[in-house]
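Researcher: Here's my situation. A collaborator sent me these components and asked whether they could plausibly form a single complex. I don't have experimental data yet, so a predicted model of the whole assembly would be a useful starting point for our discussion.
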Amino acid sequence: MTNKKITIKDGQTDNEIELPVLDSILGPNVVDIRALEKNLGYLSHDPGFIATSSCESKITYIDGNEGKLWYRGYPIEELAEKSNFTETAYLLLNDKLPNKSDLNDFFKSISSNYNVDEQIKDIINIFGKGSHPMAIMSACLSLLSAKYHNEIDIQNKDYRYRSTIKLIASVPVISAWILNSIMQRDFQNTSENLSIAENFINMAFPDLSDDQKELSSRAMDVIFLLHADHEQNASTSTVRLSGSSETSPYAAIAAGISTLWGPTHGGANEAVINMLEEIKNSDKDVEFYIEQAKDKNNPFRLMGFGHRIYKNYDPRAKIIQKIAHEYLAKLSKDNPNKPLFDIAMKLEKYALEDEYFVSRKLYPNVDFYSGIVLKAIGIPQSMYTVIFALARTVGWVAHWNEMIEDKNFRIGRPRQLYTGNKKTKYTDISER
Ligand code: SDX
């Protein structure tokens, strides 16, 4: 890391400050502004964190202009083709690919933790019919945080490893139980010999044929892998900020779940299907909806389109589009999900040729095609964001570990530009 200097001239006091520029391995270098407040009394201001690096990270690299995504240096396309979710989870956590015995041990440590606390089932049952599964999931994580509260020992590496493995093993089982409850089925048992994706499919759809289970597990495994991490997105930043107070990792993940839920983040996969269904059932054509999305007086936006970082095609969307194609073809020629896929392809085609979308560099993101595959697998729509959270738990815990091991680790505490009242005299209620 070389230390170049940049100079900021402060017009008022004519003070000069030299701030170091930290070299990144790839991507933009960053100006280390920590001396700004101490030496000049200024804060930096960046609503929405457009130009703010909040931490150092070695986990995931994105080149938004080129549409590149790498986990620990490995391109996502190669991982999706050659790796699997368990191996990728190991990679994200350990910064290296496992050898056979590492992978075996890692998988065993996960599957031996499939035996999630039975009380989780009571929590799921408490929620009424129609409750959103993301709320249920968050409550389940809160139960785990209560359960393991006395064990909290954030600075202890063994504690962190234990809770990391427990979280990666428990969240998929909890998700499958929530799915069982939504589909009004008995809670299914786990199978220690099955991978995370196989176990999830087996618990979710016990009546499927073995061939169908294998097909769905393979599609699900790639979907998990593609969602596993995405550097400092809103939910990961939430987990980091929440975890920075040294709270329980289960509580920090619950905070991440709440953030992911929103329709402009992970909740977009559910919103995309709502949008495609609406288009399918309406007598209006795709162009009508494209025009609506462009109209600033209309709140309608093309869900699954646009991204803060990608100013090019999200590489995950390309891979999921291919899976959707292959998966739907394997199911049957007249698959009921085919019309939605066709509408999505048409929307994409029109948007990518439209000046509004082209000039703003708005492309399909990860959420655009994922709902179509999940729908074809048979996952109820309200569960799509749960699937995202299940996979992202790996990234969340990888970032939580990295943060605590960081030499600069301290509680996160943003500042503000105060624009409220100056000191104001209190008036008695009778005089107001
Ligand atoms: C995820 O950050 C991550 O890494 C997230 C994620 C992950 O893996 O963790 O990748 C997962 O959250 C994917 C994003 C899912 N959300 C959606 O699909 C919802 C639809 N998209 C948008 O709401 C929006 O594009 C965001 C939230 C994704 C990004 O918002 P930004 O960066 O704040 O961009 P913006 O809203 O300021 O948009 C810039 C311009 C605006 O037009 P102008 O004011 O400049 O004229 O583009 C327009 C926006 O109005 N625009 C859209 C649009 N998205 C942006 N116009 C129509 N339809 C859209 N979808």
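Model: Some features of this prediction you could bring to your collaborator: The mean pLDDT is 95. The chain has two domains: 5-44, 57-417.
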